[in-house]
Amino acid sequence: MQxxxxxxxxxxGIDLGTTNSLAAFMDLTGPKIIPGADGDKLVPSVVSINPRxxxxxxxxxxxxxxxxxxxxxxxxxxxxxxxxxxxxxVKRLMGRGLDDIQEELxxxxxxxxxxSEAVLQLQLGDRTYTPPxxxxxxxxxxxxxxxxxxxxxxxxxxxxxxxxFNDAQRQATKDAGRIAGLEVLxxxxxxxxxxxxxxxxxxxNGIVAVYDLGGGTFDISILKLHDGIFExxxxxxxxxxxxxxxxxxxxxxxxxxxxSEWGEDLSVDGEGVQRLRRAVIQAKERLSFVPFxxxxxxxxxxxxxxxxxxxxxxKLIMPIVNRTLGPCRDCIKDAGVTVDQIDEVVMVGGSxxxxxxxxxxxxxxxxxxxxxxxxxxVVALGAAVQAGILSGEVQDKLLLDVTPLSLGIEIMGGxxxxxxxxxxxxxxxxxxTFTTGVDGQRNVLIHVVQGERELVIxxxxxxxxDLKDIDPMPAGFARIEVRFLIDANGILxxxxxxxxxxxxxxxxxxxxxxxxxxxxxxxxxDSVEKAEQDFEERQVREARVEADTILAAVEKARRHDAYFxxxxxxRAVIDKAINELLLVYHADDHNLIKQKIEQLNxxxxxxxxxMMNTAVRGALKGTKI
Amino acid sequence: xxxYFELLGIPRSLHLSLDVLQQRYYELSxxxxxxxxxxxxxxxxxxxxxxxxxxNDAYRTLKDPLKRAMYVLSQEGFDVGEQRSKDVPxxxxxxxxxxxxxxxxxxxxxxxxxxxxxxxxxxxxxxLTEVDRQLEVLFEQYDHAQSRDKLTEIRGALNRRKxxxxxxxxxxxxxxxxP
Lengths: 625, 179
What we know:
Chain A is of the alpha+beta class. Chain A has 15 helices and 27 strands. Chain A has four domains: 1-198 and 374-395, Nucleotidyltransferase, domain 5; 243-317, Actin, Chain A, domain 4, CATH 3.90.640.10; 407-514, Substrate Binding Domain Of DNAk, Chain A, domain 1 (Sandwich), CATH 2.60.34.10; 519-624, Substrate Binding Domain Of Dnak, Chain:A, Domain 2 (Up-down Bundle), CATH 1.20.1270. Chain A is 38% helix and 25% strand. Chain B folds into two domains: 4-63, Helix Hairpins, CATH 1.10.287; 84-175. Chain B has seven helices and no strands. Chain B has helices at 4-8, 18-32, 42-63, 65-75, 93-107, 114-145, 148-175. In chain B, helix 4 packs across helix 7 (148-175), helix 5 (93-107) packs parallel to helix 7 (148-175) and helix 6 packs antiparallel against helix 7 (148-175). The chains are: A alpha+beta, B mainly alpha.
């Protein structure tokens, strides 16, 4: 049975994670993960720019000079050999400014390009990329995986974001989708998506807490379930807290060890530090299942080994785990429930495999958490369910999410006047009327901030809106009504209306962080052109690989008895076909190469058959001996 | 602006059943949430967005008895601005004066004011309960008679409540162990 998705096609769900990303779709039995070409479900969120093509040893074939984008497992390998051209955990930079990321820069090898004051740029090889562009490479990989899987184009997606992501971080994620050629139908909060995947709505009524500790972010959400309605009561979190922090903690210790044992500072050696980081991560992951393990590194002929026991590990990471508990308590309070009223707790994110995390959550909520679903996959599965809701396939479920942060405007004295309070169900709106303060004033500037503090400087600047072209009149006469609307993606939309005339008033938006619409458009243009070029290059490369295979096979066959059983004419036709293929081999036209491959295939048909027959004859002979 | 009670299809009253309210809210959400209009023309999508944002605002306002009362007051033309709650209710003047002295001592690091503050917290919390009880009665009376006088009384009680709530919050803050 074919599901009718209409002319707009299939909608996939994407979990764009700090460490790993994955895509899922809804089939008749429920949400399913879409595997990549290598069979892996997880695509590591790592992007590398190759200076040359992978098969560069072969002369001629790999002679393209432009950088090739590598994503996922292959890029994770390149992180070891070319760390300066490879980037990971870029989610930490989404929607942020240079001032925000000083802490990250101490811990992550981000290569910030000069001139990043306005918009953050990363240096990768000889080009610079914004964080949304890097994320777009990951998204494009997932899109391609889905297209290969379905055998049809995929252009629409639901993408998940941490519930505690602010407006700029959400907008940056949406921009990444657009750059990757995806229409982002909805941004869904990760913990909420997870609750959809868990099918907890099977219970008729109940209160559920979702604890989501991923690679780089922490979220806690408390939901009320009622006959298929998932109503988020409150959410809290920390967008800079996750498994990465544990890795960095262990890495610091290991670097210190190496320094004293080898007398070397590995932290300045890009490859060395990445190898050690990987060793540390592997040890961390093993420790979730065994009581002790070793951090092991063999590098440049030297060995480092350190035993690490679970109880030491627990002691080390206790402060990180404890940092999640405050937001949990605040969230319970904000939800207006008590711990006893919470019926279920769901664990999401790879870091929840850590036994200490599990026991801390169990202690706080006084309930055994759900861990049945793979914590790495549950968010993508939920995104697929939401995709099903949007495409109309899933009718019985509905998500009512909230905005994690209060929205306000700057008023006199640098004070914030809150318009929409945090934990308000979205879409949510507020209306304010503005006027002029000076005779003949033509513009009114509105500064919008997000956060809970009283003063503007303690909150996050979101954008400045300029109400322009106000008719000149005495001060206080103009009346411009501005509507602030947080949509179902958690993103702010502003519209303005002149109260006297009733006409729509133009609003000029200057985002404090992130890209303008024009910049995103430009990146989409670039990426479409690049994608076409990339695609063309890939097809040529694949055709050449195919040609190599057949040429090698024919070369081998020419030494075979069967070859000499052919007539002179037949051999001449084969030689001609070989020569023709070699002639087009270096042309950048994959169709021509394919055509010549096919020709060679045709004319060697009889040869191949003869070889088969002699092989069979040989085999039969063999059995008689 | 769509009238909140009308939108949710419930009679305008200060007392209402939260179960009925929630049920109506969920029904309307299923109908008007933007998720349901993803494949619709732009104009319809915009309408759904507007309607569901108003619906969410309405539910948020009406499910909380105090916000609900404030809403009805503002609909009836009462001024419900913030500054009203800053005037000290006359009958509390003396107590507030003593409380401020104790708070001052506490902030100055003098822990001997603690017992006094603890007593004050208990007193003011009791007062809150008392105001809430009064409000309950007033709400019922208003629903019955719909008189403007009752609304004036309600506004007075709400201001008083807000003022006491602020006091309680402040006392609790000073009693809490500093982070």
